[in-house]
């Protein structure tokens, strides 16, 4: 008897313990690790899904095992590497393994879907395939598909004679497209052509096309019309004469917004050459070495990435490259595809379920060599990886906010070691953790201190908004910034304006009684969105109309305070009516493909000023941008988080680097109410080393990372008393295992104590070495599951990126 160890998907009571199921004899050579199956669970007739983690030839269980009901997949959806990674990830992130396994798969494989099989290219006439498909082009697998049929499918799949497709049920119509094919041979087509009437010019054209492109059939009907100018009436006549027939073919979706341009390979600078050589040596020697490239903005880090990817491909290996945000993906992807063509796949959250699945399939079946994507692309099913690259490695968006709370850098490090390949981290402003590891020799530090062609760094000016001249100015633009925008426009150059706060105004307040309109679900003020004509909560999405009188005292002296990107857009249009302004923030990029559309428009000089939040601050490369203006540099500085200074320094340094990237000189103006703050001062000089020393000193004094490990435990409940009571119970549990050298902070309410009608309390554990803590946290994860039924939300975040 063969036995499968299965991790089951039980939402109400998850466990990391696999359950054993008997593999029916007819499925004994079908069920393999990485495959999903349907099994019975509990005392009743409940059926659930699970992942096969292991296949064994016996069980230690003395009772009768339940059999596997059916296999969901005819091929494994997870590789041995992904299965091993799931064990590590669950342990590292204090998550349940089922969550980790599902995170690795595209959404289409987690939703309701249909599964189809069809002949692989070249095996359409294979006797076994034809017998199985029963002369159909595509066959759907259902619950009624017999085990013997599943066995045949699995056998043919192993021989690569069959292709398997998954389609979300509500997108099933996007699986196939109408196409044209023929069963006639070239000789038969030539014979038929001789019998055509001499005036049947359209038919002659079609026959000649079929003879020339017989190997390329089937071809989509739309291509016949649009690409080859053969009309539908012509095709209908040929169908009537039994020359051609219509069939359905699978259509692969390609992500939108990708416009690759063929590029020449530039000559490398001395710094680039040294970096490429070092990394390529590790690629050749299959070394799991981590490199940290600390390169100023515009120093050519991307070209270093491309050349190391090229090396991996030349060695017959694959490459994985991560970028922090969707907004960076179009420009980066265009460069990578421009270099490597169809060998590149793209994965990020902006793709539709269908696009994401199609890209995932191309990777999984080995059709691509390079994957570029945001955080979740770190789970791309690549094999034989030769190099892994994380661009802008300091970005907080590489950390997942909900379960499993993984950091892409940690997962990439694990995959680097598994594949014995180098990991390359790149940034102009590395995270303190990475830079500290480089100081200790854990990472190999590579400096790139010069811009390409020795272009100078932009000239930066700090504007003190407390000065009389600036404070007297109406609006949010100082005279200096206004004057420089005007000069850039006059020279037909482009400008970038940053304000890291969306909306029109931060809050609405009554000047009579001081009333501030707040969200009914969260402990925050509502933000005014003029374009929507509504007050909106950025935490729960609550919306309500804009009041014209104070709800508290009925006064009409109600006004808007604080500034968001919508307001800045209005001011720019009033100050510079001739300028074309593009706004890029969460509100203007909700639509699919909007990131790429805005970037393309600005790159084509269809706009003069690009205004936006932090998504415009990094990675973008526009040669005609000579001016960058930061409207309020204190936005990130005022956040209640020990990383606030680091975030501010990184954001200002990165956005400054958008100016003067080509032959024209760059100029940056930073408006602030804290001109003497070291983060702003050092960012103005692009002086990472001075900032690093200062910030490390303060972290050491306050006992935060990278000097201490940090774990955050948060408790939420609709009743504040219950949340507080539960958090004190958790504190008592932790006190029992921690040594005197550990620091236990809290419980205390979070900065925004109520979100989505729940009250949040948090406990922070800071430690260097605590041998008992890890096991206790795993116990807490398991023991508190029952509390979720009582309305509690309990989360454990290892090395959090934000602490309120």
Kindly identify the CATH topology of the largest domain: Rossmann fold
What is the mean pLDDT? 87
In DSSP terms (H or I, runs of 4 or more residues), the helix count works out at 23
Any idea how many domains? Answer: 6
Strand content: 15-25%
Q: Which strand order spans the largest sheet, edge to edge or round the barrel?
A: 14-15-13-16-17-12-18
Model regions low in confidence, pLDDT < 50 over at least 5 residues = 170-174
CATH class of the largest domain: Alpha Beta
Q: Which architecture of the largest domain does the CATH hierarchy give at level 2?
A: 3-Layer(aba) Sandwich
- Please compute the radius of gyration using only Cα atoms: 30 Å
Largest sheet: 7 strands, parallel
Tell me the number of strands: 33
Principal-axes geometry comes out as: globular
Relevant CATH superfamily of the largest domain: P-loop containing nucleotide triphosphate hydrolases
Structural class: alpha/beta
Spatial gap, N to C terminus: 54 Å
Percent helix, as a range, is 25-40%
């Amino acid at each position: 008897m063969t036995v499968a160890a299965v991790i089951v998907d039980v939402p109400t009571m998850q466990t990391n313990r696999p359950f054993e199921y008997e593999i029916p004899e007819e499925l004994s050579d079908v069920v393999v690790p990485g495959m999903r199956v349907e099994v019975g669970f509990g005392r009743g007739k409940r059926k659930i899904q699970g992942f096969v983690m292991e296949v064994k030839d016996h069980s230690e269980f003395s009772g009768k095992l339940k059999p596997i009901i059916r296999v969901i997949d005819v091929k494994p959806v997870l590789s041995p590497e992904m299965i091993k990674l799931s064990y590590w990830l669950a342990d590292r992130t204090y998550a349940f393994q089922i969550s980790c396994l599902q995170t690795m798969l595209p959404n289409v494989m987690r939703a309701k879907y249909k599964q189809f099989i069809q002949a692989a290219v070249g095996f359409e006439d294979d006797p076994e395939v034809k017998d199985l498909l029963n002369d159909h082009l595509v066959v759907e697998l259902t619950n009624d598909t017999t085990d013997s049929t599943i066995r045949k499918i699995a056998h043919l799949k192993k021989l690569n004679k069959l292709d398997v497709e998954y389609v979300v049920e509500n997108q099933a119509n996007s699986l196939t497209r109408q196409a044209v094919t023929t069963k006639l041979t070239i000789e038969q087509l030539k014979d038929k052509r001789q019998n055509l009437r001499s005036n049947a010019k359209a038919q002659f054209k079609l026959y000649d096309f079929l003879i020339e492109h017989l190997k390329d059939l089937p071809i989509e009907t739309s291509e016949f019309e649009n690409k080859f100018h053969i009309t539908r009436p012509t095709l209908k006549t040929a169908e009537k004469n039994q020359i051609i027939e219509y069939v359905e073919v699978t259509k692969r979706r390609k992500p939108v917004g990708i416009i690759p341009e063929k590029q020449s390979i530039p000559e490398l600078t001395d710094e680039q050459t040294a970096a490429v050589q070092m990394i390529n040596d590790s690629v050749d020697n299959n070394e799991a070495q981590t490199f940290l490239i600390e390169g100023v903005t515009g120093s050519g880090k991307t070209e270093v990435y491309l050349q190391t990817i090229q090396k991996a491909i030349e060695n017959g290996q694959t490459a994985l490259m991560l970028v922090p945000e969707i907004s960076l993906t179009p420009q980066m992807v265009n460069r990578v595809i421009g270099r490597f063509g169809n060998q590149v796949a793209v994965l990020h959250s902006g793709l539709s379920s269908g696009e994401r699945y199609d890209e995932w399939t191309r990777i999984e079946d080995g059709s691509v060599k390079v994957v570029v994507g945001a955080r979740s692309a770190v789970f791309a099913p690549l094999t034989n990886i030769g190099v892994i690259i994380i661009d802008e490695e300091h970005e907080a968006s590489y950390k997942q906010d909900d379960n499993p709370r993984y950091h892409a850098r940690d997962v990439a490090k694990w995959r680097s070691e598994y594949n014995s390949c180098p990991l390359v981290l790149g940034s102009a402003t590395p995270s303190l953790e990475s830079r500290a590891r480089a100081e200790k020799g854990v990472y190999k530090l590579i400096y790139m201190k010069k811009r390409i062609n020795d272009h100078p760094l932009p000239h930066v000016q700090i504007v003190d908004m407390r000065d009389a001249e600036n404070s007297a100015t109406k609006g949010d633009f100082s005279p200096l910034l206004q004057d420089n925008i005007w000069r850039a426009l006059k020279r037909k150059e482009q400008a970038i304006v940053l304000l890291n706060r969306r909306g029109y105004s931060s809050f609405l307040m009554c000047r009579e009684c001081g009333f501030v309109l707040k969200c009914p679900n969260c402990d925050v003020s509502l933000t005014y969105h003029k374009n929507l004509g509504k007050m909106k909560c950025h935490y729960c999405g609550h919306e309500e109309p804009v009041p014209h009188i104070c709800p508290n005292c009925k006064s009409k002296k109600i006004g808007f305070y604080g500034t968001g990107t919508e307001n800045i857009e209005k001011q720019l249009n009033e100050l510079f009516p001739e300028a074309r302004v593009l706004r890029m923030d969460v509100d203007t990029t909700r639509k699919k493909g909007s990131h790429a559309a805005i970037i393309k428009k600005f790159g084509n000089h269809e706009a003069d000023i690009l205004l936006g939040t932090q998504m415009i601050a990094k990675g973008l490369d526009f040669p005609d941008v000579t001016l960058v203006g930061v409207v309020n540099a204190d936005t990130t500085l005022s956040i209640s988080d020990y990383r606030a200074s680091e975030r501010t320094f990184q954001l200002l340094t990165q956005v400054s680097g958008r100016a003067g990237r080509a032959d024209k000189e760059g100029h940056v103006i930073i408006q602030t109410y804290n001109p003497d703050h070291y983060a702003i001062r050092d960012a103005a000089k692009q002086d990472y080393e001075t900032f690093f020393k200062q910030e490390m000193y303060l972290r050491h004094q306050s006992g935060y990372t990278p000097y201490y490990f940090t774990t955050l435990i948060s408790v939420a409940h609709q009743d504040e008393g219950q949340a507080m009571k539960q958090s004190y119970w958790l504190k008592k549990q932790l006190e029992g295992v921690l040594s005197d050298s550990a620091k236990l902070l809290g419980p205390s309410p979070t900065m925004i104590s109520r979100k989505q009608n729940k009250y949040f309390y948090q406990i922070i554990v800071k430690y260097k070495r605590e041998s008992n803590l890890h096991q206790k946290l795993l116990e807490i994860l398991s023991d508190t599951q029952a509390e979720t039924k009582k309305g509690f939300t309990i989360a454990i975040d290892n090395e959090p990126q934000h602490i309120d």
